[in-house]
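Whether sequence alone determines local backbone shape is best considered at the level of individual chains. In the encoding step, the backbone of a single protein was reduced to a row of integers, each denoting a local shape. For completeness, the protein is quoted in full, as a sequence line and a line of structure tokens.
***
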Amino acid sequence: GYTWEVSPTPTAETILVNFKNESKEPHALIFARLGEGYTVDEAVELEGGKGSATEVSGRTFVPPVNHDTGGGPSVEIADVTKPLSPGDYVMLCPLAGKDGPHYKLGQLAKFAIE
């Protein structure tokens, strides 16, 4: 699925992000601070270039769950680069599937850190 629950919302004190994949598709996590005046779509198109976004954790890939073997969710942990300065942030899955980019299908969370 393409639903994405971010809980709790990251704060300036966040140091790790647990990323869990319970679907049959691979997913990835980008956690980035948006550049002033840039939209999510612009930052994705520019791949963070031209100051459109700054990644605050390494890109994290999580393989799909193998439901045939009764496997549980895949979980990865991403370290967050400190400090997280005030601004607009985004967590999204940049991978594209048959229905389009995952972040446009619901794997997107935008929030502010003050």
In short: The helical segments are 40-45. The CA atoms of residues 1 and 11 lie 26 Å apart. The longest strand covers residues 27-34. The mean pLDDT is 90.
